[in-house]
Amino acid sequence: MTFNFVGKRRIWFTISGALLALAVGALLFNVFVRGHVMNFGIDFTGGTMVTLRFPAMVSVADVRETLEKHGLGKSIIQRSGKQDIYIRTEEIESGLRAKIVDELKEKYGDVELLEADTIGPVIGKELRTQALWALFVASLGIILYVSFRFEFKYAVAALLALYHDAIITTGIIALLWRDIEIQFIAAILTIMGYSINDSIVIFDRIRENIKKLGGKKMKLSEIINISIAETMARSINTVLTTVIIVIAVLFFGGETLKDFALTLLIGFVVGAYSSIFVASPIIAVWESRK
Question: Transmembrane stretches, by residue range (predicted)?
């Protein structure tokens, strides 16, 4: 006996509604309590990027200790090779930058300033605009592709599921107050690509079963239940293998990859849920209302 996925849709929609409410609540909380909707990083707010070459290998913790003396302890510090250190911090004046380099020279010897760039808030604003355009173009492409390959109702269901994934993932990241860099946009687009792929696999099976089982006078909801059950093992195996890799990156990757991996982890789990319990039931609801 096939599990009644569509018949339990009120439960799935209630869970999704609660998660969406949590996401929106987290964004509003940040606005009224923290002053910003999300913890935007240097890529969006502007800042200073510095590359230093040390005479010998130094630890990231030692460099951070020097920056903390000047209130820059939250800077992103990344090793680039054995002797080079890459620093991303809030915008600082050239005088303070030179003072930090001098302190590092006193501590470690001949420290060479290889590169120093400043990103202004105007560039950060342009990045936010480009990010929104990227999401818009991706959404439009998905609507056109799914409508052409299936039907418009499938495109609507897929897009609603994708926005469901993106909003919940964004809300959880906002609630955790993680840094938002340009990698976050890349992660959201990756999640959308993963989720739409999973949904299309189920949609394809629904279309096949409509042709195969439609002559037996079966309801669409029954066909959807059978289709989900037939693709369930594939969906679970795919998300598990993907999540294992992302968890490995989260725990063993570099510091700059942690927020990216965390976003992917949340999004992949939510995307696997929405493909099964949100996108397909929406098609059944659309058909029943029609």
Answer: 12-33, 131-148, 155-176, 182-203, 236-254, 260-286
